[in-house]
Amino acid sequence: MSATTHRGPAATAPASRTGTSPRTRKYRPRGSRGRGASVALHATLLTASAVAVFPVLWIVFISLGPGSAWQQPSEVVHHLGLANYRFVLFHSSFPKWFLNSVIVAAATTLLGVLIAASSGYAISRMKFPGHKSLMWTFLITQMFPVAVLIVPLYNLMAQLDLIDTYLGLVLVYCTISVPFCAWMLKGYFDTIPRDIDEAGRVDGLTPFGTFWRLIVPLARPGLAVTAFYSFLTAWGEVAYSSQFMSSKHATLAAGIRTFASDQRADWGSMTAASVVIAIPAGIVFLLVQRHLVAGLTAGGTKG
Amino acid sequence: MTTATMDPPARVKAPRPGLRTSLRRSWDKYWYAWVMVAPVIIVIGVLVLYPLAYGIYLSLTNATEQNVAKDIGPVHIGASYDFVGLHNYWQIISGQDGDFYPRLEWTVIWTVSCVAITYAIGLGMAMLLNRPVRFRLFYRLALILPWAVPAFIGVFAWRLMFNSQYGVFNDIITHLGMPQQDWLGTPFAQKVAVIIVNVWCGVPFMMVATLGGLQSIPNELYEAAEMDGATPLQRFLNVTLPGLRPVTSTVILLSTVWTFNMFPIIFLLLGNNTTGDTDILVTYAYEKAFTGVSDYSGAAAYGIVILLILVAFSTFYRRQLKSEQV
């Protein structure tokens, strides 16, 4: 397998923590491992990847069969086709839900990240009364169960005439995503050296100008992670959207349940719809995945 | 390591004499910061704190679907619910409603097992991925996939696979010559199933977070440990784990809170086929609020109790961390 050969010095540096039973074998350079260890490593990773990927592939597989494919999975191979997709895309309300979800998720992401970023920056760089309690509030807000907020929020939205509107749902989703994003971003901004701010100020930028022109471009990994989080939150949220939106404005998560929750679940359409839904999420994910590790840990740990 | 996450809850300072002048002075000094945080404050204030206050008020009444204000056609019916004080809370705490303690017990089991298993697997995967491995990018993408797929889709996939008649798990085990199982039939099986699904959904976050933590541990520490003759286990216990502490403490706190409040997985995986045994506090409260005759006040009281439990837990948790760090 891969790492049995002795590696050059360049490869040893990141590898120094491997060391599988180094004492019992004869001398082996740092960072290399025996054939057995390599096999075990790859076997574990392969198994784990299979478990992670299988449910998703299974849905893709079923969706390609006829409508009743989920009852005879073995038949799917002989009847591959796009009938489910055709039904979902052209003969159901799915495109409407999809559009609704796109609008709501995009608006939530944009609004959430924007306002979370500016306050995250303020908390990170400026000492002002209330900045500690604000951090604490962000954390507490994560703990709010749906059950405590949903009825009062419903009443509030009804008073503001925002029930069954995009704006209403976007605002509701901001309550979920903004505190988390601000918390994460504050942590991320902390990792950016203050010298940069000072250089910007010396060159005559306002604090907001410093933030907008210098820090935001540098904070791209952190922003990417929070955008990803906001988008996924809005894209997959179930509880609020199924209570707040009528069938005309239903988002995907609420709408797709009508395929499944009835007495006879239409799994064919369900699976096809799921695949179509997963695609935008997957694209967003691919765009930000290289930033995920950096953005998440900086925010999470130094928060 | 005093990080801001470890800040104690800020205490409200008593107003000093000359409130107006000191307000003016602090406005002059801090207006820039306040303007920048204003949008968040407004959002949280209007959409979280106000509903919270309203929820607390509801929890002190006996509001149900039947007696709240509503419009039937042109006729407006005013609210006719009464203030009942702490009655709802007493019902819950004293166990008189018969559901709180069983639900709490299961919620705690669910949270602890989910967080522990997720963390263990996430850490394991992160340590494997942190080594030089061929195809590392492939493995990483594959392992993060459950996070990229919206939770409700993952849940539907599992539901399909668990299906007792046609699910793929039964196909597999019948091929292996074992009898079919009713994966979601008994309450116990359902509990195991929801934990499996939640772990599946939660591992990627843990893995990514701990992977970053692992990468931030300086290599010299491992080299020094190796020079001193530390075994791999000793290196893990004495270098890796302490080095991961800042990450660990944050992700465990976050994922405990998230799991405790995990709504969609239980709600969607089991649908209406439950006996109620698998309901955690949050799903139970949601059902109270939206099925049958909606019991708004009861649900609100449950929500507040859940919130109090979580706030108490996280306060205690952070204090504990702080005292260990000193």
Automatic annotation (TrEMBL), chain A:
The subcellular location is: Cell membrane
Q: Which GO terms describe its biological process?
A: maltodextrin transmembrane transport
Q: Provide ranges: composition bias, Basic residues.
A: 23-33
Top-level taxon: Bacteria
Q: Does the keyword Acetylation apply?
A: no
Arranged from A to Z, the UniProt key words for this protein are: Cell membrane, Membrane, Sugar transport, Transmembrane, Transmembrane helix, Transport
Family membership? Belongs to the binding-protein-dependent transport system permease family. MalFG subfamily.
Q: What is this protein called?
A: Carbohydrate ABC transporter membrane protein 2, CUT1 family
Q: What is the lineage of its organism?
A: Bacteria, Bacillati, Actinomycetota, Actinomycetes, Kitasatosporales
From TrEMBL, chain B:
Kindly give the InterPro entries that the UniProt entry links to this protein.
MetI-like, MetI-like_sf, UgpAE/MalFG_permease
Residue intervals of the ABC transmembrane type-1 domain: 104-317
NADP as a keyword of this entry, yes or no, is no
Q: Where in the cell is it found?
A: Cell membrane
Would I find Disulfide bond among this entry's keywords?
A: no
Membrane topology field: Multi-pass membrane protein
Q: Which UniProt keywords apply?
A: Cell membrane, Membrane, Transmembrane, Transmembrane helix, Transport
Which CDD domains does its entry note?
TM_PBP2 (cd06261)
Instruction: Give the principal location in a single coarse category.
Output: membrane
A single Gene Ontology CC annotation of this entry is: plasma membrane
Q: Which residues cross the membrane?
A: 30-53, 108-129, 141-161, 192-214, 251-271, 299-317
One Gene Ontology BP term is: transmembrane transport
Report the SUPFAM superfamilies cross-referenced here.
MalF N-terminal region-like, MetI-like
Q: What highest taxon heads this organism's lineage? A: Bacteria
The similarity annotation says: Belongs to the binding-protein-dependent transport system permease family.
Which PANTHER family does the UniProt record give? ARABINOOLIGOSACCHARIDES TRANSPORT SYSTEM PERMEASE PROTEIN ARAP, BLL4140 PROTEIN
Name used for this protein in its record = Arabinogalactan oligomer / maltooligosaccharide transport system permease protein
Q: Which organism is it from?
A: Actinacidiphila alni
